[in-house]
Structure formats: C-alpha cells, structure tokens
Amino acid sequence: MDQLADQEHIKAKCPTQSSFFKSIILSQKPNSSVDIYSTYLKEFSNSNLSEYDAFFWTGGLGNIYEKNEFNSSQLKLAENLLNLNKPIWGSCWGLQVLVTVFGGKIIKSNKPEFGFSSNIKILNKHYIFENKLDCFTAPGHHYDVIEKMPIGFNVLAENNFSIQAISSIDSNIVCTQYHPELPYDFIGKLMFYWKNNYLNLMTKKKFDNLIKQLNDLENKDTFLRKLELINWINSL
Question: How many domains, in total, are found in the chain?
Fold first, then answer.
C-alpha cells in the first residue's frame, strides 16, 4: 500500500490491508514465514526478493494511470518481481499495477463500486473458483477499471461494472479487482470513517443501508469470501 493509505487506516483505527493477507496465509500454511513490506519506506530493498516463494500485492488508494514517483516505483517493483518468475496474487491496486506492466490499460470508471461487487459471473473455470458459486458477491471498492486487457491474460470473471478477475496464461499470476482478503465490515468501517465523502454521492439512508448490508454479508458469508485466495495459497 502507499503511505497515505497506511496513514488513513491508522486514523480510522483499522488494521492495514496486508494484515488480512498475512492472517489468511498463516491459517492455511501455519509454518510459513510472512514478511510485510511497505514499499514507500526508504529502507525497503528488493535485493532479497528471490528468497520468497510467492508474493501478495494489496489494495491501495492510488490511480496507476497518474504520473508520479510512487507509481513509477510500483511499476519498477512489479517488473523486478516478474523477472523472478514466482507466483503472484494481486488484489485491486495489485491488479492495476500488474495489468499496466503487462501492457494493459486502467482507466477511471464511469460508475464506481462501493463496499461490495455483486453479480460476479465466472467466465472461465479456474481452480481458484473450486466450490465457488457461478455467480457471487465479493468485497469490492474501486474507482478504476480495466479498459484494455494485458497481454497473455484471460478474463476469469466479470460483472456489469468491470472485469473482476484475470489470470496469466503462462505463469501463476492471479489478480482480482475485488478483495477476497478483506472483511466486508472492515470496508464498512473505512467507509464510515470517510462518511462525508460518500454523503456527497448518496443519501444518508442509502449510506446507512450500505453499511448494514456490509455487516450482514460478513456475518452470513454466503459466498465464501476467502475461498479463491485459500484455493490459490493451497496450490502453492
């Protein structure tokens, strides 16, 4: 994640997104060693990346099509990771970075998704969707979408808003626009922290109903929220 995202999570008294990845990894592979890198920190170095078996790229607050130093560093890091030929999972921001590096294009969405992505339809059978419903809802919160698919990737799932999942044809790279790693109510807590921003886009009643929906979705977990990520981790 970028520095602003980490700072905002702290202010909202929410865990960072990377902590949810770590928890899921350790739940499936308890003997694993999991390191979290904040790539904006000066002490971050990619010199030892080859020591890792796989990489997970979190969500964030940026827009990859903007020209700035942070985005340039993210794209460079992605290039370095790809040279290692290791498995990579990317969620939301991770998807946007990897799509761009592979020659695809991310643009601003005409209609963003807030809180969750509904009616996601599986288009291509893939092992990450084993035991998953063919049409499902998932945590999702994004303002950007794939306009041009990256070279060498297949679309795995989509809904009426955007392409929601892609995978590399030749390597073990899977990316989702949605967030199987994030609890719905965690997104709801962040939205409540930024409540005034959303009240410029929707009525208070609609906002309150959305927060309630997110809590209900997490409590019921009808769509087995973490399943794709668990299937991927267990394939490593």
Answer: 1
